[in-house]
Structures are given as C-alpha cells and as structure tokens.
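re: ur question from earlier - yeah i can do the single chain one, its not a big deal. heres the input i used so u can compare w yours
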Amino acid sequence: MEDRLQIGKISLGSRLIVGSGKYPDFKTTKEATLASGSELITVAVRRVNITNPNEENLLDYFKDTNVKLLPNSAGCTTAEEAITLFRMVREATGIDLIKLEVIGDTAKTLYPDVLETLKACEVLAKDGFTIMTYTNDDPIMAKRLEDAGSSAVMPLAAPIGSGLGIQNRYNVLFIKEAVSVPVIVDAGIGCASDAAIAMEIGADGVLTNTAIAQAKDPIAMARAMKYAVLAGRESYLAGRILKKPFATASSPTEGLIEFGRS
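and the output i got, formated as tokens:
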C-alpha cells in the first residue's frame, strides 16, 4: 500500500513540503520544487503574489503541475492579522488549506507567539479552513492546537533559516506521542541529513525552504532532500536496532570452523 501523508482531506504522495522564498525568480522556484518531488509549496502571501492576476503570479508557474500552493501568514504578528489575511486569500483564490504562523519575536529568533497562534487557529477552524500550524517544539501546545482544530502541527527544529538542524529530538518524539494529527518538522533544516534524521525519529513530514533556495545548487539540493525524506521514512518504518554499549558479533559464535587440526 502506498505510504501517503494525510492532512485533513488532503492526501499527498510526498512527505516533503518546500517553501517559495529566497529564490532569484519564479522559474528557479518551479524547477527546484519539481526536482524535490514535493506536491505542496508554501508561499508567504504578504510577500509573494498569488492573488493579483495583473502581476507576475506564482500560481501561473504551477498550473501545469500537481503541486498545490499552501498560503502562509508569515509577517503576521497577531491572530487578527492572520485571520483577516486567510479570509482574503480564500476569497481571492478559493484555497482553504493554509499554514498558520504568528510570529512573536520578529527581530531575532522569529519564534512563534503561541497564544496568538492558538486564538487564530480556533477561529479559522470554525471558518472551515484546513490548518497546518507552525509552533514551538512544545508537546502541550501541540495538543492544544490539535484540540483547537489544527489538522497538522509543525514544530520548529531550530530558528527559521538557521540551518542548525533538530536541536531537541526528544521533543519531536513527545509531540508525536501527544497528538494524533501529522507532525511535520518545520524550520531550521540545513541539509539532507537533517531531513533524514527528522523522518527517522518519526516525523510524518518535513518542510524546508532556505536549505534548498540558498544552496549553491538549489536543484541538486532539492533532489537530495527528496531522497533524504524517503530514506528517513523507510528507515523509521523498518525499525532501527537497539543501541548497545558493547560489540555484538554479526555472525554466529557457535559451531566455528577450527583450523590447524588434523
């Protein structure tokens, strides 16, 4: 059976989600996205045009693909701003699958304001949106977001754009135990091995933008991320061996062939 990622009513064949920021142009954005195999690309609608048909529009570049756009509320600092933004986006595009993020610290860490995020989630869920929610790596808040109507929780691995990789693997595990919706590691991925580790410890998916867009070769990095997510998922499903402090022979120690005897 095909191993698909289910987010609300959306079913995806790829567990890698990519971003659209920091590329030199929409053409490169499209090429990297297709190379990644991702079926979902998130776009900051306060920074990238998807609503004005009279200007260069990212939607036009993906019309002939199976890639869906995932509007996000990057740049919003209050629940009210995010709610208003997504209502306008749905009115203009009909898209109701969204990535909710409300940033509390815009100067240094870009950490989310989880209280404002929770307020927005409650309202948007009642409005009928399918919500994927960016949050900190706190299992208690992840559960509250699920209870508020979030269809996926997206804990940060490290600060946005930092490339530091997963700083607290145990919290990802705790979040997986706390919620029943998909857990998608978001923010801080720096290279393909970071994505593989996220999947190996049980994340349902990975979202990355900067690691691809600002790589020396974005297309090559996009392909690397694709295979890293696949490998990490297969490794997780296969089940790793237990860690042990001492060596264990990989071949039988009984019935050994003895040499030098007639």
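The first strand starts at residue 5 and ends at 7. not sure if urs matches, ping me
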